[in-house]
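Exercise 3.2. Students should predict the tertiary structure of the chain below and write it as structure tokens, then compare their answer with the key that follows.

Predict this chain's 3D structure.
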Amino acid sequence: MKLFRKLYDWGLKQAELPHAERALFWVAFAESSFFPLPPDVLLIAMVLASRAKWFRYFWICLVGSVLGGIAGYGIGFGGWQMVQGWFFTYIFSETVFMKVQHLYQQYDFWIVFAAGFTPIPYKIFTIAAGVASIDPWRFIVASIFGRGGRFILVAGMLYLFGPRIRTFIEKYFNLVSLLFCALLIGGFWVVKYVLH
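Answer key:
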């Protein structure tokens, strides 16, 4: 929660500065391929700090995330042999990963879309998509729709209800952080146990 709070406070303070947009892009990029912290926290802080730029922030987050997803796909497609030992040791078991890969053979577009839109860890699915060698164009389109739907929902709701949502977040930040963490952990749980 402290990390979320720091990122949120930083986003509020830095939203008007040019480097905040670069940070949003790189957080979104990294989260789609290897970084565990979702960009939503920074996106929320930046939109609340500067509601007029909500659509710009949405696009920065979307482009960074989709390009990061393509990088994750590249890791799976071209560099899997080099990273698979580390991945199976620190991220998920080989059994879970193989289950995800098998699902791609039947539902490639919908799996990428669901991983992009929900709290399910998107990075696992971008790498698995590369390992499974699914059609890259279908992967990109599914990523645009999944990630785009998620980020437009977050940014759009904050734009429409900004002052009320900001008051709620400020007052109940710890509760909001706990719920956000629960969703994030729930996404990992789905991958680890439901797909096992």
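Discussion points: The chain has a mean pLDDT of 78. The longest helix spans residues 136-171.
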